[in-house]
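Dear Dr. H.,

I hope your travels went smoothly. While you were away I took the liberty of generating a structure for the chain from your last submission, since the lab meeting agenda had it listed for discussion. I wanted you to have the full record in hand beforehand rather than looking at slides cold. The sequence, exactly as received, is reproduced here:
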Amino acid sequence: MTAPPDPGPPFDDTCAAPWWLPGGHAQTIIPARLMPAPRVHYRRERWDTPDGDFIDLDWSTHACVTDTPLVVLFHGLEGSSASHYARGLTAALAARQWEGVVVHFRGCSGSLNLAPRFYHSGDGDEIDWVLRRLYQTHCAATRRPLYVVGISLGGNALLRFLGERREDAAFVTAAASVSAPLDLTAGGIALSRGFNMLYTRMFLQTLKTKALAKLKQYPGLFDADAMLKSRDLYAFDNIVTAPLHGYRDTDDYWHRASGKLVLDAITVPTLVLNARNDPFLPAAALPRSADVSPAVTLSQPAHGGHVGFFARHAGWRGHLPPLGQSNWLPLRALRFFDACATPSIATARTTDTETAHG
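The corresponding predicted structure, in token form, is as follows:
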């Protein structure tokens, strides 16, 4: 296997936001909506699922060095390979000549899926079969590392997989969860209040469209009128997400699917990155060091918003860096993976300076 790249100068894990980007909302919205992401190209592959459905995977098309790591990304709620964080990570992988693939949850690739289901925050079983197939087809023979990044909902589902499978997840070399809604109840309450309703309305707009299309496939699958009247994620999940995926109701779903519950069972080296000003999850709901296993590194910088993490960089003095966005987030994940591949560095992974709680 090719040696990991030179990690370069020391990495600043504080994610110090520029002065003109104050607060969690600005640090969430501006990087996602108002700054251009890198231009990347993908090759699409469609897989049939064990239950007669399909998923779409978008592979990076940049040149890759033989036997370098494969990095898998699971996107967030209503995200895709076009999301700013997916393009940012893919561009960072291109710079290293590492291979990357974005796995689309069902119905998120631009094509409505076939089964009477969608995707959800606790979908560890889906993560499991996808990663095992990727490992067998792309990593097992050459023993190249398999690194996994989960963003928001995808990060929570990734943590559920890691915590539920424990040692059986050891074929994954290392993982990183970014802005995962670790406590779904606390996050759901936060998203139902005040300015946060802006995000809720945005999510519901696309979720309701998909739900109506699903009803055309499966008439009577759920109550269309009640679904259309839902004004927050609690109501939508109660009508659609929870019953379609084996949960009694929203309360049952939000409790049983929360990633925070399984952090103490994870055995794969895992970075859990959450900004303390993330509007999607109150800082009080974040895990402390006593809540996690020795394999888990908590990183909880004061700034970053929800999957924003736009940081100042030495040399550009707070002005826009190249491509109009910071590369702090992909660098943070890749530096963690470097540490896990380098024994002399990996021993320090549970002493992250941003972790310190409890």
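Two observations you may find useful: The chain is about 35% helix and 10% strand. The first strand starts at residue 42 and ends at 48.

With kind regards,
E. W.
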